[in-house]
Amino acid sequence: MLNFLFRRIAAGIATLFVALFLMYLLVDRAIDPLQDLIESTAPNKQQLIDQRIADLDLDVNVVVRFFQWFGNLLQGDLGVAWRSGRDVNSLLTHAIGSTLELVSTATLLAVILGVTVGIVSALRQYSAFDYIIIFLSFLLFSLPSFWVAVLLKQWAAIGFNDFLRDPVVAWPVIIGASLLVGLLWSLAIGGSAVRRLQVFAIAAAANVTLLAYVQLSGWWERPHIGPVLLLVLGAGTAFAVVGVFAGLHNRRALWTALTVVVLGVVLYFPMQIVFDSITESHWVILGLGVVAAASGYVVGRLYGGADWRLSAHVGAAVAVVMGALVFVDQVMQVWGPYFKALSGRPIPTFGDRTPNLGGNYWVQVLDSFTHLALPTATLVLIAFASYTRYSRSSMLEVMNQDYIRTARAKGLPERLVIVRHGFRNALIPLATVVPIDVITLIGGAIITEAVFARPGMGQLFVRSLEQAEIEPVMAYLLVTATLAILANIIADIVYATIDPRIRLDA
What we know:
- The protein is an all-alpha fold.
- Helix content is about 75%, strand content about 0%.
- The longest helix has about 40 residues, at about 360-400.
- It is globular and about 85 Å long.
- About 25% of the residues are buried.
């Protein structure tokens, strides 16, 4: 492993240096910092041109200028954007932060939804559910991102903000939506006609109950989760996680998951005091998430048994979900003052922050979430189509392999064949695709950022090119090139982790 990392990092550094050198030459050729002065009618035009040439060292050979820039880079100095006079380090820091917020959220949701739906679609090959997913995937994949973004601004932002003036959903709409949800669940689960009817009835009834609770409790005016809904959602998560990864017959895993849910509900009230003491650090929240996962793991370990590791992993997964639900509930608690501060229109259509908003840490978090909603939905819808197609085709290929037939011939349960033998191997192609996609998005979802006016990496690159500022452009290229190299290394490591047949040191 160490030899592999050393070789790849050394090769990556050499590649990065050559790429930066070539890009510096190309960017210098593409931009003209004197263009505005050449077109100027000022009486002292030549004097201004000479002054800018001296300020920007344009009379120095471009190769020499590159090595001057590279020498400053080694000292941690990325230069100054000469038009605005702002330090490139600060520009890059804000742009990366804005883009990382968008990319991390969109990628996580797209991978989870896309892989899950793709796997189910593959297992229901040539069924009605499979045809529906194929149609939606091709439809979403063919849609231009700017068009999706504009539609979301119109219907998901403006339309939803208008809805919040009088948040009442007609009962025929609730019943119709519930029947549709029940139909989709029955198609996804499959099985005999009786089983499909049972799934349809349970899913439809659960959806009607949930929407009725939202309607009658005034949830739209005071959105919250609370201990009761936390218990219901946690129990559903526990049964789902155990059912998929361990099987409901595994009593230790089931009791581990339910114990973690009960602990999460019990700790809900003391956690309110802990959250009130948090003022500004995201690292504290991340630390609490790690503690939650470790606690769930310990619960599974305490239940013991021959397969205690499986119980521990189930406990950790359920604990993370419970922690996320408690966190979301805490953010929802500041909805009232936030809603009032934004004059009853809480879903914004541009930017990444509300100017001069004020408020505590949780108000700022809620503000970030509302600004992320639309651009994240845009990227998720487009990426969801790709990941669904990738995972479906990969799962179909895996399920036709000899080792799958051997596992079934040995008498293993179908759930075990799918999860431990099929699912893990179906992830191998995605191990290469996902890191590269993440780096592509970090480079800037230029169209999405432009539509929603988010000051991210893509907008920094475009704006710097338009203003003929080579330092911010090179800083952008430095980050994207470095991350592209790291993404390939990470993809190789993940590939080897998923597939034990691959040896990095071979």
